[in-house]
């Protein structure tokens, strides 16, 4: 009897240890998957199917023998076996491990008062299949993993929070924005009203121009609009307009700003005050811009062959040209360097046409608009591909004053190189006399309001 009970106790202990072994096996597989995650630096999702441990009931059958068994008072006190597994905490990844409930149902033990024959029935231990399928370990592709890592590094997960914050700021500052925009709109309306009055003041000139020629009327209208814009926004002034002949040809050589808006104002004043149209030489890329062809034709803009320039001057027209061109517009700066290089074509045009050369410079033209062409990338693009794509910024309402120097008369004994040098020195002299170097936007804005020019 004692031995039978001891045997049953050891059998139950064996089944308990088998279940513990299965539990530790599943834990080992989880740690293996976690190890693969740490080595691959990829999100790994390990799924374990539930472990079902099934124990078949132990059937112990006792068959009576013709042997009398005297019960012996044997006391059997099984020692308590306590198994307290240490708490295992797994934080990374949503890995869920739910062990199946282990059910142990001992078979009923029957004792016969007769002799006892102990027949150990088969104790069958069928461990449930712990299924570890390869599909349960999913490796994220490398590009997706890199994108997620970059997303975490850049903090894009908080974009929604930033948008919510911006929405809050917009809700808070919208009233203030409206309060400031309304006065600004009123100022724009006043500006347009002044421009309208400026045009209306010259309605008689417009009426006469439209009666003579359609394009003369269009040129006069645009000239008045540009002159009004220059007078209102920049307080534009021209000093030395009397040096422009009322009749006859002349070659006007000027310094090229980032945007030659001063030259547009000058052309408008020539049309209004002298009643003449000044032909101009422009870069080839202007003729490739869609929609510019009509504007260039109406204002007699040519792309610059020497023969065509000579023809315009011999026909008695004024001709404006900037030897620096696009290079000077993009790469010059607030120190106002002349980037003419060895260009002498304009001087040869003046010699062939036998016309005087008038130097011209506009004060603060580099403070009105500035270029980022001094950066190496934009210079390389222009030198390599002839792409004038350097960004231009500005539009500041600085003071513009255009100064015309003394005409350089035609001299048949002067070569093109000598004439080009004389014209360059004349333009440089105008810059040194009327422009503070280096240019300053703030100082130019102050001059727009407070200072007045003193004639030399």
Tell me what the structure shows.
The structure is a single chain. By secondary structure, the chain is of the alpha/beta class. It folds into 3 domains: 2-140, no CATH class; 155-201; 205-449, Glycerol-3-phosphate (1)-acyltransferase (3-Layer(aba) Sandwich). Helices cover 47% and strands 12% of the residues. The chain contains 14 helices and 15 strands. The longest helix is centred in the middle third of the chain and has 43 residues, at 159-201. It is elongated.
Helix-strand blueprint:
Elements: H1 2-40, E1 44-45, E2 54-55, E3 61-65, E4 115-119, E5 125-126, E6 138-139, H2 142-154, H3 159-201, H4 203-212, H5 214-234, E7 237-239, E8 250-254, H6 261-274, E9 278-281, H7 292-298, E10 301-302, H8 306-314, E11 318-321, H9 325-331, H10 345-353, E12 357-363, H11 365-368, E13 369-371, H12 376-385, E14 392-394, E15 401-404, H13 416-434, H14 441-449
Parallel strand pairs: 7-15, 8-11, 8-12, 9-10, 9-11
Antiparallel strand pairs: 1-6, 2-5, 3-4, 12-15, 13-14
How would you summarize what this structure contains?
The chain is an alpha/beta fold.
